[in-house]
Amino acid sequence: MYNRKAWKHVFKLDPAKSLTDEELDQVCQSGTDAIIVGGTDNITLEGVIDLLNHIRRYPIPCVLEVSTADAITPGFDFYGIPVVLNSQEKKWLLDAQHQAIKDYGQLINWSEILTEGYVILNPEAKAYQVTHCKLPDRADVIAYAQMAEQMFRLPILYLEYSGTYGDPELVREVKQILNNTQLVYGGGITTLAQAEQMAQFADTIVVGNSLYENFDEAIATVNVKKD
């Protein structure tokens, strides 16, 4: 099994968006530590399987971040289960997960499950709106981080700015209070300089949207691993 705590750089591919076969080959051969497949809306089983079939040509770990139970398929190394800590609806903290386990619990290999404590910090992001989040202040974020590690023992805390570049100082503060929970940062990384800045503090950085906006610059962010 892969050591996901050693992952420094990860690409995230959205099944609802498209890259050419050549670009997908580049992503898989880029030197990134892993690939996440996931998105917020219009996620179909067909789109997930298409990406999985392409990624599986290469010896790279891949994670399905589950946003709808209808698009779950075998073949991934891990399955990320988001728990949105700053959602105002219990559905996104507990109910959706409970229903999935009720329906499919007998089929789950629990060693492949990664529960991700999400804090979504961009009010303009689709994920923020879909999950009806409340924008946390610094003290809220620190408290969520403490809850994730000390109360819920979550393996991952994911600071998600989705579509905008976040606050490196806040990422640094959160990292200082985490010992065992893996700190993942995602959002707005479009250049190697931004990747280097966030990688100083987060255990793992995720580059996603920029693959569909400025592919060459996004690919270059992998060079953060050489620093």
From TrEMBL:
CDD domains: PcrB_like (cd02812). It catalyses: sn-glycerol 1-phosphate + all-trans-heptaprenyl diphosphate = 3-heptaprenyl-sn-glycero-1-phosphate + diphosphate. SUPFAM superfamilies: FMN-linked oxidoreductases. It comes from the Bacteria. Pathway: Membrane lipid metabolism; glycerophospholipid metabolism. It is an enzyme of class 2 (transferase). Mg(2+) binds at D14, T40. InterPro entries: GGGP/HepGP_synthase_I, GGGP/HepGP_synthase_sf, GGGP_HepGP_synthase. Keywords: Lipid biosynthesis, Lipid metabolism, Magnesium, Metal-binding, Phospholipid biosynthesis, Phospholipid metabolism, Transferase. Its cofactor is Mg(2+). Homodimer. NCBIfam families: GGGP-family, PRK04169.1-1, PRK04169.1-3. Belongs to the GGGP/HepGP synthase family. Group I subfamily. Prenyltransferase that catalyzes in vivo the transfer of the heptaprenyl moiety of heptaprenyl pyrophosphate (HepPP; 35 carbon atoms) to the C3 hydroxyl of sn-glycerol-1-phosphate (G1P), producing heptaprenylglyceryl phosphate (HepGP). This reaction is an ether-bond-formation step in the biosynthesis of archaea-type G1P-based membrane lipids found in Bacillales. This is Heptaprenylglyceryl phosphate synthase.
